[in-house]
Structures are given as structure tokens and as C-alpha cells.
Amino acid sequence: MMIKNLKKAAERILKAVEDSERIVLYGDGDLDGVTSVIILKETIKTLGGKVSSVYFPDRETEGYGVTKKALDFLKKFSPALLIAMDCGIGNFKEIKEAKKLGFSIIVIDHHKVLDKLPEADIIVDPKQKGDKCLFKELAAVGIVFKLSKLLLKEKMTESLRKNFLELVALATVADMMPKVNENKIFIEEGLGYLETSWRPGIKALFETDFLKDYNLHEKVSKIISMLNIRDVEKRLPGSFFILTNSSPQELVELIADLREKQKVRKEKIKDILEEIERRISKSQDSIIFEGDSNWDYPLISYIGSIVCRDFKKPTFVFKKLKEESQGTVRVPSGIDSVSLMGKCKNFLITYGGHAKASGFRLKNENLEKFKSCLIKNL
Question: Which of 232, 244, 311, 329 measures 20 to 30 Å from 37, CA to CA?
């Protein structure tokens, strides 16, 4: 069975292209969101359409998903078709606001649906009620790839299909989706094309000296680690610049820049991990719940994964801002982080994600109440 509303989304996009409507592509700044935007952007271009704007929110300054700051920037493009990828399923207030601004909205997401759906025109999410597709664990990029095939039909050449599958494989692995069913097929086929890719950015990555002594899977792991650095400049992540650039000289400079940022990132992660271990050394709590105003928000997802793996406890790591905190959650197998937070949603501004990996935002005054509620409901 086809994913619910996938055909409807394809028809709406084709209408926008045919009618020369303005199209805005909106993606999360991680590799899943970035590759989803790239595939749909290149698909629309192949159809003869034009994308008016691409937007990725800076999680540290804006938060996750469709944000107020983003809408303030994008409203100049309205009326337009706004397509949110790898986010949006929990942005009830923001999508309502976007509709008021004159946007027609498609949400393409793979995160767990909360108590209700946002008021988007079309929602594509295998986890929504009434979806009869058999496999529901695709990354957002896997859903967008299926959408692209529907849109392009015979225009999906074999070389274009292979090129898109390279991106699907990278992002599916990066998003830690289960390597089974369709994901297994996408990963095995897509990874097989990487070393002979004609995409200049991927080619440049594989030609870098620091990867020459590794096997394919080690190379892929290191490339993903680099591309998942969520530095957003001019509203675009470094991974977007690398994967869409065709200038050899610029690519050398971009990759060198990300390599330097990666080294700095490693040191910061080491310092934060040591600090967390020091803090929790005397704690008997059933969860790990730590945050700081000095921690870089883009690092906390990786840190949460390491702490959860090492201590085998539900782990909540957050960046403390002036009035609010935003954080990431990682949990051991058998615990659903989204359902757990749902029991404490009264203390939260927003929350959502996958069962094993998710995120949240709340007022600082509710931090201890949220922590107590989590412990009580675990």
C-alpha cells in the first residue's frame, strides 16, 4: 500500500509547477532534512519548476521545526506552496499561523504523531492514523524519494535514481533508522554508488586524504559525522552547501572548514561528557537530566546518545537559554521517549520525535517539575 496522501502531495506539487506558483522548501537542518530538500528541489527543477526559497531553522536560536522566525522571514513569498520536510508534525500553532499568512502547506514527516495533527493542507506521515503502508520506519528522505518517483515517472532516469539513492542511503544511516525492509534496500544500493558518484560534493568527500585508509563503511561513518555538523550560515547548513556545490575549489574549502569545526566539536563534546559524568556520579535518579547555558545546542544530540549508551538510562540533555530550555532525549530499548514526555506535556512548550530519540522545549521555571514528572511516570 502507498503511504497515505503521497499521491495527493505529488498532484499538488505538479499543479504548483504547472501554474508557476511560488514554492518554498523547508527542512530540518540535519542530514535527513537537508537531503530531503535537495532531492525535492532537484526533482522540481527536472520538472521545469522553480523553487522560490529554501529554509533550514537554526535550532539554537529558533528551536525545532517550523518556527516563528522562519515564518517572519518567509512571509514575503506568500502566497506560496510551503513544503515542510522532516519536521512539522508537531507544529500546530506555527502551521496555523502559516495558513493565516497565505501559505498552502504540505507536511512530509516521519516522526511520531502526537495527540492531533496540524492543520496542514496535506500531511504525509506513515505514522498517522489511517495510513495502511506496511513499512513505517522510513527516514523523511525515503518518503521524499518515493514522492520524487511519483512526480518524475519516466523523467526519473537511472542516473538520477542512483544519485538520489546515494543521498537516501546517507541520511537513512545518519538518522539511525532500522536497517530492515525498504531501508535495507535503500542503504545497500545507495552506498554501493557512493564511491563512483557524479555528485561533485560526494566525489570531493571521497577524494579527501583523511579517508584514504578506511573501508567504505568507515568512510561513510566519517562523512556522516562531518555532514551532520549543524552549522547554519545564511540559513543553510554546511551539508547543503557541500551536497549542492559544483565548484572543486569551493568544495575543498568547505570540506576543510567542516573538518576544522569537527575537531573543535570533538573537544567540546569531551569536555561536556566529563562534566555530565562528574554531575551524575553521586546521583541515584532513574533518569539522567542535565543542562547548561554554556553547552552548544548542536552537540547535545550526540552527547545524549553517548550518555544513554554508557549509563543505560533515559537521558535528557538540554541547552539552557534565558527563559527557556531546549533539549534532546535518548532512551534505552523498551522505552518510548515521546509517550513518556506525553505524560508530562503540561510542562512543555513543544516535544516530539521518535520513540528512541526525540526533543523538547520548555520554560526554565518548569525544568524541575518536568524532571519529577518523568521520574514518576517512568
Answer: 329
Q: Cα(348)–Cα(225) distance, rounded to whole angstroms?
A: 30
CA distance 113 to 338: 9
pTM of the predicted model, to two decimals?
Answer: 0.92
Residue pair 274/300 in contact by the 8 Å Cβ criterion: no
Residue 262 lies in a domain: no
What is the structure's pLDDT at 292?
97
Give the three cell numbers for residue 208: 579527501
Residue 213: the pLDDT is 87
Tell me if 315 sits within 8 A of 374, measured CB to CB.
no
Low-confidence ranges of the chain (pLDDT < 50): none
C-alpha cell read off for 284: 541515584
The per-residue pLDDT for 12 is 98
The span from the CA of 114 to the CA of 341, in Å, is 11
Is the domain of 223 the same as that of 288?
no
- What is the DSSP-derived secondary structure letter of residue 116? S
List the end-to-end C-alpha distance of the chain, in Å, as a whole number: 36
Phi and psi at residue 102, in whole multiples of 5°?
Answer: 105, 10
Which residues make beta-bridge pairs with 262? none
Peptide bond into 57 cis (omega under 30): no
Instruction: Find all residues with CB under 8 Å of 218, minimum gap 6, and list them.
Output: none
Pairing of β 103-108 and β 122-124: parallel
What is the total count of domains within the chain?
A: 2
Contacts by 182-187, CB closer than 8 A, 24 or more apart? 182/135, 182/138, 182/142, 183/135, 183/137, 183/138, 183/139, 183/142, 186/142, 186/145
Determine the pLDDT at residue 232: 64
Half-sphere exposure of 198 (CA within 13 A, CB side): 7
- 83 and 13 in contact (C-beta within 8 Å)? yes
Which residue range forms the structural domain that includes residue 289? 283-377
Residue 86: strand, helix, or coil: coil
Q: What pLDDT does 1 receive?
A: 85
Report the CATH number that the domain containing residue 148 is assigned in CATH: 3.90.1640.30
pLDDT digits 0-9 by tens, 189-201: 999 999 999 999 9
**Amino acid letter at 75?**
K
Q: What is the pLDDT of residue 373?
A: 98
